[in-house]
Design goal:
- The protein has 22 helices and 12 strands.
- The chain is an alpha/beta fold.
- It has helices at residues 14-25, 40-49, 69-76, 93-101, 114-144, 156-159, 184-209, 233-247, 266-276, 279-283, 299-302, 305-317, 322-337, 342-363, 365-373, 386-411, 415-425, 433-439, 444-455, 459-477, 482-488, 494-505, and strands at residues 5-10, 31-37, 57-61, 83-88, 106-109, 165-172, 212-218, 222-228, 252-256, 288-290, 513-515, 522-524.
- It is 55% helix and 12% strand.
- Helix 12 (305-317) packs parallel to helix 14 (342-363).
- The termini are far apart.
- It has a 5-stranded parallel sheet with strand order 2-1-3-4-5, sandwiched between helices. Strands 7-8-6-9-10 form a 5-stranded mixed sheet, sandwiched between helices. Strands 11-12 form a two-stranded antiparallel sheet.
- The protein folds into 4 domains: 5-132, Response regulator (Rossmann fold, 3-Layer(aba) Sandwich), CATH 3.40.50; 160-294, Reverse transcriptase/Diguanylate cyclase domain (Alpha-Beta Plaits, 2-Layer Sandwich), CATH 3.30.70.270; 300-410; 415-524, Orthogonal Bundle (Arc Repressor Mutant, subunit A), CATH 1.10.10.60.
């Protein structure tokens, strides 16, 4: 069902104003005239009372008393979005040129050619609807992916009015042997082809049902459809599946979610549809699975097995050795494969992801948030077979386990060891006691006391010593200029660097000599800044 477009007409000549409004309202593209006004001031006041996206087209004369069309356009587009069609006499072309610069779509010359005006209305209507559809699809893509915090923002009811909706997902199944060699570009082209099939099928469905539908892709292997109305969504899904099999020579499973009343339920419906795709792990792919054909959702809730799988993954991640971690993970994956319902599989997968995210949060809170927000959402891309699903979970779990073991090993080192290593890694930077103590972390005064007790030298003496040792190594083993050597060990003042070097080695860096292991080669660096 095509929503009517809204127009506002502004012309100071009553007969022309009424004639334009009549042509617009009778046009085949379905237009409403929200208001017809004699001057720009009156029109601007009305436009400002309308919503930012409520008006689709402004048709205005360019020469009018009070406020001309150019100023009206300039003022109105500050907080509203619409196409503009300007009306002009033969002697007003400078106004037309200026209006086009302000963003007007086209112009109409007086006296108005009705046939030409109708063609312009048709072209504008097509442009508006194409742009609107792109924006609507982008909104749906963001809302279903959880990008928009407040999904469905202001104006939602006008864009997606209340009614019955169903969300469907067409997903490529486990690729055949031939398709396993496909590149990322091949899969991108294949997904575009699937999207085209879905768009054509949904458009036919919407026309038959006097309703509407939206289609968008979610790379790398899923295509979504939102349907509004009470038509047979399962039949539509079967047509898409069959067309993909026939035209793309590939297997596609289509999941059809339960009806819901408003887009506030869109995100939950997405999760339910993704869980429904797990049925292909049990019953096979290249089929249509409809949620309203399933029994009530109580079987998975009564089972404790998904939670137990998550607990086993938790134990695996916290094992002291990689071998023990892998053994427990493999036990969890075998348990996962034995589950009998798609809902139980989804619960088990989410339980495993939660444990992986928790481990990452212990290592690095930022990495944990990134995993929850981005990486874990990709698990459904690998749910075409148990082997791929478990392989992806195992990859993530092992990565988290390795990071957690490394964190524990780091925690077992003494604060002084950590400080000395950090200093050696940052010799070129300005170093202060407060900065180093913060990395440990310890109070600066207490850190200095502990460092002196365990090493026999102060923190600053240690920094100077290791800087000079690194400088000596650079002088021996490289052709670096003296200024560059000083900079690489944290000194911007060459004079101060020479003084510190002589204190440790007894000679200036320019006179520093080293005999190699065979006692045969003598090196000397000239003190000329090179």
């Amino acid at each position: 069902m095509i929503r009517a477009l809204n127009a506002v007409v502004v012309d100071d000549e009553p007969m022309i104003r009424r004639g334009i409004a009549r042509i617009i309202e009778q046009h085949e593209a379905k237009w409403n005239v929200l208001g017809a006004f004699a001057d720009g001031t009156e029109a601007l006041a009305f436009i400002r009372r309308c919503g930012a996206d409520e008006i689709d087209l402004l048709v205005t004369d360019v020469k009018m008393p009070e406020m001309d069309g150019i100023r009206l356009i300039r003022e109105a587009v500050r907080d509203h979005r619409f196409e503009t069609l300007v009306i002009s006499g033969y002697d007003d072309f400078d106004y037309v040129r200026q209006a086009l610069k302000e963003g007007a779509f086209d112009y109409v010359l007086k006296p108005i050619d009705r046939g030409q005006f109708r063609r312009q209305l048709k072209e504008i209507a097509g442009r508006i609807r194409r742009n609107r559809r792109r924006e609507e699809v982008e909104l749906l893509r963001r809302w279903t992916a959880g990008v928009e915090a407040g999904p469905v923002a202001a104006g939602r009811e006008r864009i997606f009015p209340s009614g019955t909706y169903r969300l469907c997902c067409a997903a490529f199944d486990e690729p055949s042997q031939k398709m396993r060699g496909y590149t990322a570009k091949d899969w991108t082209l294949l997904l575009y082809a699937l999207e085209n099939i879905a768009e054509e099928t949904v458009d036919e469905w919407a026309e038959d049902q006097a309703s509407c539908g939206w289609v968008w892709q979610e790379p790398p292997r899923r295509c979504w459809m939102l349907l509004r109305g009470n038509g047979d969504a399962e039949l539509l899904a079967e047509k898409i599946r069959a067309a993909a099999s026939r035209n793309l020579r590939t297997a596609v499973t289509v999941a059809v979610g339960r009806p819901f009343a408003g887009l506030t339920e869109l995100r939950q419906s997405r999760n339910d549809v993704l869980a429904l795709l797990h049925k292909r792990l049990i019953e096979g792919g290249n089929r249509v699975y409809a949620a309203d054909r399933l029994p009530p959702r109580d079987e998975a809730a009564k089972s404790d097995r998904p939670r137990q799988i998550g607990h086993r993954v938790r134990l695996a991640i916290r094992q002291p050795s990689r071998e023990d971690a892998l053994r427990l993970m493999r036990e969890a994956w075998r348990e996962l494969e034995s589950l009998a319902s798609h809902e139980a599989i989804e619960q088990a997968v989410q339980a495993a992801l939660l444990q992986i995210a928790e481990a990452w949060t212990q290592v690095d809170p930022g990495r944990g948030r990134q995993f929850i927000a981005a990486e874990s959402a990709r698990v459904h891309d690998d749910a075409t077979s148990f082997a791929r699903l478990c392989g992806r979970l195992e990859e993530w779990a092992l990565e988290a386990a390795d990071a957690l073991r490394a964190l524990r090993a780091e925690a077992g080192r003494s604060p002084v060891e950590k400080a000395r290593e950090w200093i050696r890694e940052h010799l070129a930077e300005p170093l202060t006691i407060a900065m180093i103590a913060e990395r440990i972390p310890m109070h600066p005064t207490y850190f200095c006391e502990v460092f002196k007790t365990q090493t026999g030298e102060t923190v600053l003496d240690y920094i100077t010593r290791v800087r000079m040792e690194e400088a000596a190594r650079l002088l021996r083993e490289t052709d670096c200029r003296l200024a560059e050597v000083a900079e690489r060990v944290g000194y911007r003042d060459i004079k101060h660097f020479r003084s510190q070097f002589k204190k440790l080695y007894g000679v200036l860096p320019s006179r520093y000599k080293e005999i190699d292991g065979d006692g045969g080669i003598r090196l000397q660096v000239r003190d000329n800044g090179r």
